[in-house]
Design goal:
Blueprint (H helix, E strand, L loop, with lengths): L1 H7 L12 H16 L8 H4 L6 H12 L8 H19 L1 H18 L20 H13 L8 H15 L2 H5 L21 H38 L3 E2 L4 E2 L2
InterPro entries: RTRAF (IPR019265)
Organism: Chironomus riparius
Protein name: RNA transcription, translation and transport factor protein
Length: 247
């Protein structure tokens, strides 16, 4: 996704390694110089000093001036937001250009598919921009309300939100009363023998999730077997040559 955004903005090296500190800082300067232009040229000196120990302070000030959401904690998240912001400005500055390009493409598509029936989508999700800062901010807000853990990719967070809603907030789940008793003793018994406490906790949680997934798979298998048995017993085939009923 980062590469696509950089290509759309005309970056000379869309494969830039954003994990590299120097490359990351150069990219921020390039975005400010070429597309965002929030500062006057003389006010960009702090960002241009990419090897200075004071660069982080200049970057913090820059994010504040752009109104970058404070809930974005990692540099990758902040970069994705800044890229989306730059694309938004690029589109706004060249609105007539992109409108004409869009119109031309629509006319070409209409000519090539003039014989095909027109189908108008009634799905509101088809009109959503899943990469826009507003959509990403909405996902983050919903994740906070549902206590979904943080992840740099907001689309992965959206998938986790979907899982939480599916498992806990559907009509069937809401009808089930909250189970009473002690919670599962996740920290009792044999662990993964990890030296790091955080890794040990994560490994135990992953093991429980794996057990849950296996149980769900087994449930589906059992339901399939029962359905097949019902089909065989309720609609048996008769072979009079063999003198028996069944397959």
């Amino acid at each position: 996704m980062l590469r696509n955004k950089l290509v759309s903005l005309g970056h000379p090296n869309p494969e830039v390694n954003t994990q590299d500190m120097k490359s990351f800082r150069n990219l921020i300067v390039w975005l400010e110089d070429q597309h965002i232009r929030n500062y006057k040229i003389e006010d960009r000196a702090g960002l241009r000093k990419i090897t200075s120990p004071e660069w982080s302070k200049a970057f913090e000030k820059y994010k504040e001036d752009l109104n970058c959401p404070k809930e974005l904690k990692t540099e990758l998240e902040q970069l994705k937001w800044i890229l989306s912001y730059a694309i938004k400005l690029e589109y706004s500055d060249n609105l007539d250009k992109y409108r004409s390009m869009t119109s031309e493409k629509i006319r070409e598509a209409e000519k090539s598919q003039s014989s095909a029936p027109s189908v108008k989508s009634v799905n509101p999700f088809d009109n959503l921009d899943f990469t826009s800062p507003q959509f990403e901010a909405g996902v983050r807000t919903l994740a906070l309300k549902l206590n979904v853990p943080h992840h740099p990719d907001h689309l992965i967070v959206l998938g986790a939100i979907s899982r939480v809603i599916k498992d806990n907030l559907n009509k069937e789940a809401l009808k089930i009363s909250i189970p009473e008793g002690k919670p599962f003793p996740i920290f009792d018994g044999q662990g993964m023998n990890q030296n790091d406490a955080d890794i040990e906790t994560a490994s135990r949680i992953l093991r429980l999730l794996q057990v849950q997934s296996l149980r769900e798979i087994q449930t589906v298998i059992n339901e399939t077997i029962v359905e097949c048995q019902d089909l065989i017993t309720t609609e048996p085939k008769t072979d009079t040559r063999l003198g028996k009923v069944g397959f």
